[in-house]
Amino acid sequence: MIANYGYKDGSGEYYISIDTDNCIDCAADRACLTACPKQMFEIITDDYDDEVAWVKKAFTRTLAFDCSECKPAGGYTSLPCTTACTPGAIKHSW
Amino acid sequence: MSAELATPATEDKKEFWRWQENTWIDETKDWRDAKVITCGIDVGSVSSQAVIVCDGELYGYNSMRTGSNSPDSATNALKGVLEKSGMTQEDIHYTVGTGYGRVNVPFANKAVTEIACHARGANYMGGNKVRTILDMGGQDCKAIHCDERGKVTNFLMNDKCAAGTGRGMEVIADLMQIPIANLGPRSFDVEVEPEAVSSICVVFAKSEALGLLKAGYTKNMVIAAYCQAMAERVVSLLERIGVEEGFFITGGIAKNPGVVKRIERILGIQAVDTKIDSQIAGALGAALFGYTLVQKQAKAA
Q1: pTM of the predicted model, to two decimals?
Q2: Same domain flag for B121 and B196
Q3: What pLDDT, in 10s, does the model give residues B8-19?
Q4: B240: distance to nearest CA of chain A, Å?
Q5: Please, what is the Cα angle at B20 between B14 and B23, to 5 degrees?
Q6: Nearest residue in B to A93, CA atom
Q7: CATH number for the domain harbouring residue B100
Q8: Which residues of A touch B (CB under 8 A)?
Q9: B124 in reach of chain A (CB within 8 A)
Q10: Radius of gyration of chain B (CA)
Q11: Does B159 contact A at CB distance below 8 Å?
Q12: Domain chopping of chain A, boundaries
């Protein structure tokens, strides 16, 4: 399942997509949990009883601001979350 | 499928936004014959539904406006369908809560997200050919892909903005002073289809609608422009996950032909039709989840 967390507003589309099929048996030992400086990710049991990462509800309406520090303008050349997620389950839409 | 419509009691109060609450029971069935009775409760931001499923088949439902308190809304929704059927809460084997108030359903055995429930409900209502679901809820909008069993394969939700939601349509109904059920049909009563209102925000769309009225637009033209804007808004959401054949719309806006026909026109496909009230999809999916869980528990035992 592709789970898209985020929103679209007048300024653009801001979604973090998590491919839960790649997330269930995490080969990176859930590295996303510690890689994100804001600790946006959390492991939950989804509706189909799979243990997967999701973006905490508190961040889903403010992603453009919360992720800004990890974008090139914040000094990063690659996103800490997508880099840490070696199975490639996490993607940013912007 | 005809539902008993509650008296709106709106004309005198001029509550043009108020949609009709309704309760329905399948009179051809007797719930006493059922081996497994499950219930789905969808406490949404605007409406609450209780659905009863007997042996995996829809038996009855109650759909009403959500109050200020989620537990009370859930209890009242269930009470409506129980009273009409002669059933008691003790007759129900399993209850699943869904919607934004799902964790506040006091008598629920389990909570399941509305995304999974809408996919399951749409699969029942539209058949296993349904692949893309658009849920236009009271205060959010969801685009969902599912497989032939109604399991979610891709989803996104927009709950940051009220544009493209039922609440937005309620605001326009009040502004135009036209009952909300009449907005869709009236949006087609125009000589020339107007441009969509440009604002994607409900508040600014309201200001723009007032400006259009002052500029000489008829009420029907303003409604048509708003329906078109809403259709364009939700289609842009759908485009992110893509639209496949077997397109199904759930939620209250699915009852508004002014928006549905315009979405179909933009996408170039026809939505799958159903005789079941589109507003109960979430609660129906929840009740079906409950039925599956009861079956699993019985097998395990």
Answers
A1: 0.91
A2: no
A3: 554 556 788 888
A4: 9
A5: 150
A6: B240
A7: 3.30.420.40
A8: 1-4, 6-10, 13, 15, 47-48, 60-61, 93
A9: no
A10: 19
A11: yes
A12: 2-92
Give the up-direction half-sphere exposure of residue B187: CA atoms within 13 A in the CB hemisphere.
29
Taking the Cβ of residue B160 and every Cβ of chain A, the question of whether any pair is shorter than 8 Å is answered with yes
Domain of B111 in residue numbering reads as 4-126+277-300
- Say whether both B165 and B110 belong to one domain: no
Average of per-residue pLDDT across A82-93: 96
Is B154 in contact with A47 (Cβ distance < 8 A)?
no
This model of the complex carries an ipTM of 0.89
What is the tally of structural domains in chain B?
Answer: 2
Q: Would you say B22 and B260 are in contact if contact means Cβ atoms under 8 Å apart?
A: no
Out of A1, A10, A93, closest to residue B154 by CB = A1
The answer, for B197 touching chain A at a CB cutoff of 8 Å, is: no
Span B208-267, pLDDT tens digits: 889 999 999 999 999 999 999 999 989 988 998 999 999 999 999 999 999 999 999 999
Residues B196 and B289 reside in one and the same domain: no
B62 and B86 inside one domain: yes
B141 within some domain: no
Tokens of B286: 């929840």
CA distances from B38 to B1, B55, B56 (A): 21, 8, 8
Residue A17: closest CA among chain B residues belongs to which residue? B156
Residue B292 domain flag? yes
Q: What CA–CA distance (Å, rounded) separates A53 from A90?
A: 9
Asked if residue B220 belongs to a domain, the reply is: yes
Task: Measure the CA–CA gap between B280 and B255, rounded to whole angstroms.
Answer: 12
Q: Is A88 left (phi over 0), alpha (psi -120 to 50) or beta?
A: left
Q: Could you tell me if B74 and B167 lie in one domain?
A: no
B19 domain residue, yes or no? yes
Whole-angstrom Cα distance, residue B284 to residue A53? 27
Q: Is the pLDDT of residue A6 over 90?
A: yes
Shared domain check, B74 and B32: yes
Task: Give how far Cα B267 sits from Cα of B166, B234, B273, Å.
Answer: 20, 11, 16
**Residue B171 and residue B108 in one domain:** no
